[in-house]
Amino acid sequence: MLEIKHLSKTYKTKHNEVYALKDINLSIQDKGMVFILGKSGSGKSTLLNVLGGLDSFDEGEISICGKSSKDFKQSDFDSYRNTFIGFIFQEYNVMNNFTVKENIALALQLQGKKADDTQIQEILEEVDLSGLGNRKPNELSGGQLQRVAIARALIKHPEIIMADEPTGALDSHTGKQVLDTLKKLSKDKLVLIVSHDKEFAKNYADRIIELADGQVISDTSKERAAPARSKNGVSIVENEFINISNVEMLKEEDYQTIMEEIRKHKGEMMISFHKDTNKEMKKINHIAENGEMEVFHDTKEKHIHTKGYDGASISFIKSKLPLKSSLKLALSNLKLKPFRLFMTVLLSVVSFTLFGLSDTMAKYDRGVATFHSMKDSQVNYI
């Protein structure tokens, strides 16, 4: 889906250059949930914005379904974003003056398509917002607003969903609900998520890319690791857990295997005989009933499943918004910022007044003004 080669971006200051991204090389699969992790300033949001066509880059190349960014004009990036990408932002970015249905319909209108009520209703049901289509954003909770953003991203059937800190403004319970929704979508789409939450990444990601100082420092993919077993039901899981399926079946050699494993490790150790505790430990550590454990290992070619793209068959839809919706958007923005509206009107009046005065003064001729004044007063001599 996405191929990134030697991608770099710098921010220039008076005294030096700061690398936001430095020689990034990645191949990203067609489907699945990919987390981009890193501390503040690591470049994770910049990478997402560049991949989504929201920001430019200085060096390198991005191939989108086999089509190289070297062949793009700026308008092509806008069309690529309109065609392939569904964005989800931390602050939702919904239009407060629009209803839920109108917010969702905007994504289709940008593609020159008419919003169909049946289609919108299906999307609302998919994100658990059924019956809320006519509400305004100020009548919704934070979790519901984020699901409106997800629905708006989904309505145009994008190939890729890009989410920048989608749970950052939500509590942990609501954040989990949002990630559950995105995880379900990742079965058929590529979902790229920028986050700083390693725990969420470990629980939900199929792949984790970690950045520091604009560079990739880690790239791992999830896979199931089979445990080492003995014939009597003793499993050694990733050298971290000993799982005994049936204590009554243990033989003397099994006890020796267990003691050998215990001697390998130093420090604290916990042995639990409580059924519910064991069940919870398996859930937390992603251990299946058959003893297999979900682990992250370095990403290799086998983890990256993509179709064969030639680039020639890829077409983009140019962004266009109906005049009515454009005017409504403009008016809604003005309503949100009344002080800015007042200052804009005031400065416009002052500017036009000063312009008129300066134009009048520039055209003023004292001799001509005196002549007309004498003529109007019927003075025939000086």
Automatic annotation (TrEMBL):
In terms of superkingdom, the source organism counts as Bacteria
Q: List keywords of the entry alphabetically.
A: ATP-binding, Membrane, Nucleotide-binding, Transmembrane, Transmembrane helix, Transport
InterPro entries noted in UniProt? AAA+_ATPase, ABC_transporter-like_ATP-bd, ABC_transporter-like_CS, MacB-like_ATP-bd, P-loop_NTPase
Q: Does the keyword Nucleotidyltransferase apply?
A: no
> Would you tell me the Gene Ontology cellular component terms?
membrane protein complex
Q: List GO molecular-function terms, semicolon-separated.
A: ATP binding; ATP hydrolysis activity; transmembrane transporter activity
Stretches that traverse the bilayer: 339-357
**Pfam families (UniProt xref):** ABC_tran
Q: Which Gene3D superfamilies match?
A: P-loop containing nucleotide triphosphate hydrolases (3.40.50.300)
Annotated ABC transporter domain ranges read 2-238
Give a yes or no for keyword Transport in this entry: yes
Q: Which family does it belong to?
A: Belongs to the ABC transporter superfamily.
Return the protein name: ABC transporter domain-containing protein
Q: Which organism does this record belong to?
A: Amedibacterium intestinale
